[in-house]
Amino acid sequence: MGNATLLIAILHTGNVGGLLLKDVILQMQRVLRAALNAEAHGLAVSCKAIGPRPIPIPGVAYNRVNGKYSVEPFFNLAAKMRPRAEQKLAKEGKKVSKVLVITDVPLFSYVHNSDVFGEADVGGSIAVVSTAPLNIDATIDEFKKRVIKECVHEVGHTLGLGHCADKTCVMSLSSDRFDVDRKSENMCSQCKSKLESLVYKDYRTWDHE
Ligand SMILES: [Zn+2]
Ligand SMILES: [Zn+2]
Question: Which candidate in 154, 185, 196, 209 is catalytic?
């Protein structure tokens, strides 16, 4: 597929921290490249933070009753910020494939009526991840690992993957942080081959040239 690039634009909102972000981006890029067998297919995979400064948390997201933030406004934020990211990257001749929003505030989904680590539509273009519930009982390294897993998981959804029954696969559903610790940051061989056919054969799960 020539000089195709899968570009994940990363927006951070709240107080995620530059160091965490830098590590997460590098590791996510590595995991996604491997999962997509990118080199063999001539696909470039790039995860890029948009702007050094965080974007303010959408005010409407805050719920005074439970002290949490509803996840839906973060999707609106991504949609709102996407043109700015597009503009910035167009100067470098790049095109945004997916937008990942990372925040440090706790997220609540009214659709699922529960706390969430993140959310993304299968085959959609936006993924959202919260670091808040992952930063409990963890060293900085354990915390980072969890964040990487959940970022890969949500981006995996946007690429067209559903949940995996293999509890060690990054695409398995995590109900709590113990589930997150149990799984690896990598995709199982079944998810990998599914992903390869989604991305290279179906051409439907991301914007391509
Ligand atoms: Zn999921
Ligand atoms: Zn799997």
Answer: 154
